[in-house]
Amino acid sequence: MANFEYFLYVAMAVLVLSIFLCLWRITHGPTAPDRMVGIDILGVSLVNFSVLIAMLSGRGYYMTLALAWALLAFIATVGLSKYLEGRELDE
Q: In the chain, how many H helices and how many E strands?
């Protein structure tokens, strides 16, 4: 069990690094689509982080949080991409 926990902690460290790189891309992105991709990857990283916390703690509500965050991230990505294309949300 110790090897599995060690792997989860290493994965969490990699995700924290990924989150900081996404934040850098969001703040320093040269164009709006670059920032949008950074926001999308940040959402995926946060979902993965929540799943890792659920695996470490054994509590199921972190998985519910991950599912809700994934749905919100998808809806936000679709809405932002339509906005950047200049289209209405109902098109």
A: 3, 0
* Residue 41 tokens, joined: 């990857």
How far apart (Å, rounded) are the C-alpha atoms in residues 36 and 29?
Answer: 9
Take residue 47 and report the two structure tokens written for it. 């979902």
Q: Residue 33: helix, strand or coil by DSSP?
A: helix
User: Could you tell me the residue ranges of all domains in the chain?
Assistant: 2-85
> Is the CA virtual torsion 63, 14, 46, 67 positive or negative?
negative
In degrees, rounded to 5, the angle at the alpha carbon of residue 54 between the alpha carbons of residues 49 and 56 is 95
C-alpha span between 19 and 39 (Å, rounded):
10
Q: What is the pLDDT of residues 8-59, one digit of tens each?
A: 999 999 999 999 999 999 999 898 888 888 989 999 999 999 999 999 998 9
- Closest to 12 in 3D by CA, of 50, 59, 67: 50
Q: What is the pTM of this model?
A: 0.82
